Amino acid sequence: MPLKPRIERAISAAITHAQGNIAPPKLASALAYSVTPGGARIRPTICLSVAMACGDPQPEMSDAAATAIELIHCASLVHDDMPCFDDADIRRGKPSVHKAYSEPLALLAGDSLIIASFEVLTRVAHHDPMRAIELMKILGESTGMPGGICAGQGWESEEKIDLSAYHRAKTGALFTAATRMGAASAGEDPEPWTELGARIGEAFQVADDLRDALYDESTLGKPAHQDEIHDRPNAVTEYGVRGAIKRLEDILSGAISSIPSCPGEAMLAEMVRKTAERLTPVMPPVQAAE
Amino acid sequence: MPLKPRIERAISAAITHAQGNIAPPKLASALAYSVTPGGARIRPTICLSVAMACGDPQPEMSDAAATAIELIHCASLVHDDMPCFDDADIRRGKPSVHKAYSEPLALLAGDSLIIASFEVLTRVAHHDPMRAIELMKILGESTGMPGGICAGQGWESEEKIDLSAYHRAKTGALFTAATRMGAASAGEDPEPWTELGARIGEAFQVADDLRDALYDESTLGKPAHQDEIHDRPNAVTEYGVRGAIKRLEDILSGAISSIPSCPGEAMLAEMVRKTAERLTPVMPPVQAAE
Question: Which cofactor does it need (chains A, B) (predicted)?
Fold first, then answer.
């Protein structure tokens, strides 16, 4: 099965499970709303690509890993958009969850999705309990405290930011989770896969900085120039537009050379190249850009 | 070791782990603030009491179960107190987390504690992976959607509330988690323990309704009369003060007779009786009360 429908089917099954038939209807609806439309599903795509490059011997396990990562990523977007954080009215071109439903329902949708991401892994654990536990350990490390995405956002409340800890936690953690969980779900040691995830995460951060600086709200499908508004560190401020694009290309070449030797090495390199194309912004006219 | 220090030690170890040495300092501090002072620690006490009544063969496992329940309970209090829910300025006699820190940090502290509650269980999983998975399944069911505490709060956003689903999810779920996880952590079938948890949960709900209706903010250590203010269902409105107290007593007798046969049956019945004493409000003068 091609990756995209495989991912959508797994996410949709997890949401249906969380909606049950005894749930409060609005919150049940908010869960589905929070995870659709999916956009590129870049993290679960990376996770499954790595699992497949390693042979993907237990597709239920890699599906669960990919779904867990995407659910918790969506949870972080829902909470991020809330008034006390980015106060973003739109996300992926439609009203953000707290706008479409309410703040209490957005808060609860995020909480429920975090819990659902662990539950997805418990439901496949009978295939291989210690492997499921390993996946949950990586998921927890990458999302909670002291080094996961919660920690990353926590740095934004500090007067003195540890920039490398900030980026590693805020954006990098879920990308390293994606490569590591992909490998672990296939029964491989996750450690050699950390660098690939970290480099894709770095590339993604630079690309995001470029888009935030260069594009407007209608192109982004979410508010633009948020880094400038919230005075957050941004690669464009640091290197300029052309410098940031050069840096993006360097990081992605590094990513490709970091791929551990495995049956699907060439396929994975191709996936990283495609990610690169998707990430690199179409340059706007030079005056507008710099 | 007596229960109280055992619980505090386990919770404190989990928080130290989540604080790590690379974490953003304010969020790290907010985590400790969110779980102290502990109050009665009623849910972990029930969990450990049940585990001990079943022989408690793996104390690391029961400690982890009790800690997981309390961390996620504290997470729900932190999120509940936020302006978009109860907008409560005080909790356990001190400023609530969003007042002491900020709204973003309260949101992140809650998210991190939810994740930490699952992580605590992954860290003891090597003792018995399938038992740890079973504990995580109960934890997920009791806290997420469609029937856990998130669902319970979700019902508050519905025009038409399914009252029994609401109470079962909002308050009952974590009490049934406490008895079931206590039994499961000792290697026993959790199912026969569901009723004890459900009845203690019901009793707790009635006691909470009584306190909310009868006490003032300084006695409660949190805002009073919230049910009336938010027009939420309350046992005192339904049965009157004396009727609600009678109901509390009936539920607790039912709880005692539901205790499954086990080595520590008598000790457990005593624990429920003590809980009852703690829960039953000291009656204020009759005029003030009715």
Answer: Mg(2+)
